[in-house]
Design brief:
Blueprint (H helix, E strand, L loop, with lengths): L5 E3 L2 E3 L3 E3 L8 H9 L5 E2 L3 E2 H6 L1 H5 L11 E6 L3 H14 L4 E6 L4 H4 L11 H14 L4 E6 L9 H10 L4 E5 L13 H10 L4 E4 L5 H11 L3 E4 L9 H7 L17 H25 L9 H9 L3 H4 L6 H7 L6 H15 L4
Parallel strand pairs: 3-11, 4-6, 5-6, 6-7, 7-8, 8-9, 9-10, 10-11
Antiparallel strand pairs: 1-2
């Protein structure tokens, strides 16, 4: 697979295989691991424009980048053009972000019910006004994260693509499923190809990429300028290195479906490092709070890590016992002890 460096505005992504924004997952702990293992760029979690304006400190924690974390996009949502512009200014003034990304594709009910995210696919004039407002408010490049449509009755992929480009966006990333389908069904990479042909701005394809072979097929089918990986990177930061190196279908270990080299030892070390970074992140966040958090940093990190563990241990023999115990594991030592037992069980199966 040949991908050229992706350029838009003053941003250049040397290896345009990037980490998707995912609420509850893509905090600085996960983002830095993915960058260190080959991701060309990362996006923050989804942050509310109204929240950034109203309680900037608390909401900004959703965006807080780690030192040296680049290239990185500040990812925001909302439906009021002025509020989105003000939020974009806050991100730009922080000085640590490379570009602003506008969410026009999140299908989650609590976002859509507010008329934001994927709901904007039903209101293309408003979507265009938001993009224009943000573009005028900042000097950073502006991109849009969206889908190929809301449902079969609303504007199609080519209509929305033209609105995004005409409104001044510098780049677009598109999940190749309708919003109503969430992550279900096969992604329509052919529509990404049609959008690529219709646009003059770069397009990154998203949806259905879980292996290096998937990334190759997406690029071959659509001709997109870059690939965005979401759920395929949860519990598998190695996937970016795998895509970069693209050796063969045997590059991934069939038993573990996880680290390409080092087997279960590599898996244990990655989980331990991820957990350590989560603890540090919570210490940093709680250090800036006026009131104590409900959970101390270590316990908060362990709770957050519960959503990652099933992905890390996917394919391991005897994982059920660990998953059953998750709710009772409240310290780093407890989690790593259980993970260690699981790793030991699987050492002989590699």
């Amino acid at each position: 697979m040949q991908l050229k460096p992706l350029k838009f505005g003053n941003v250049e992504i040397a290896f345009p295989v990037v980490l998707a924004p995912m609420a509850g997952y893509t905090d600085a702990a996960m983002r830095t691991l993915c960058l260190e293992h080959g991701a060309g760029a990362v996006y923050t979690e989804l942050a509310s424009s109204e929240g950034l304006i109203r309680d900037g400190g608390k909401t900004f924690q959703m965006l807080e980048p780690a030192p040296g974390e680049h290239p990185i996009a500040g990812h925001i949502f909302g439906r009021d053009p002025q509020a989105m512009a003000e939020a974009a200014k806050i991100i730009e003034q922080d000085g640590r972000f490379d570009w602003i990304d506008i969410n026009c594709g999140c299908p989650v009910k609590k976002v859509v019910s507010r008329g934001a995210g994927a709901a904007l696919l039903k209101e293309l004039p408003l979507m265009g006004a938001i993009i224009e407002s943000v573009k005028k408010a900042v000097t950073l490049p502006v991109s849009v994260k969206t889908r190929i449509g809301f449902n079969h009755e609303t504007a199609d992929h080519l209509e929305l693509a033209k609105v995004v480009e005409a409104s001044g966006a510098d780049m677009i990333a598109v999940h190749a499923r309708l919003a109503k389908h969430f992550h279900g069904g096969d992604p329509d990479w052919e529509k990404l190809g049609e959008m690529k042909q219709a646009l003059n701005i770069p397009i990154i394809g998203n949806g259905g990429v879980n292996t290096p072979a998937d990334a190759e097929r997406m690029v071959a089918t659509s001709g997109v300028d870059g690939v965005m990986i979401g759920r395929g990177a949860i519990g598998n930061p190695w996937i970016f290195e795998e895509v970069k190196n693209v050796r063969s279908s045997a590059f991934r270990r069939p038993m573990l479906e996880q680290p390409p080299e080092g087997g279960t030892t590599n898996l244990f070390n990655m989980m331990a490092e991820h957990l350590r970074r989560l603890v540090e992140l919570n210490e940093l966040r709680q250090g800036g709070l006026a009131r104590p958090n409900k959970y101390p940093p270590e316990e908060a990190a362990c709770i957050q890590f519960r959503t990652h563990i099933p992905y890390y241990v996917k394919g391991l023999f005897g994982k059920k016992q660990l998953l059953v115990k998750l709710a009772t594991l409240k310290s780093v030592d407890d989690i790593l002890e259980e993970v260690g037992r699981l790793v030991e069980k699987n050492m002989g199966n590699e």
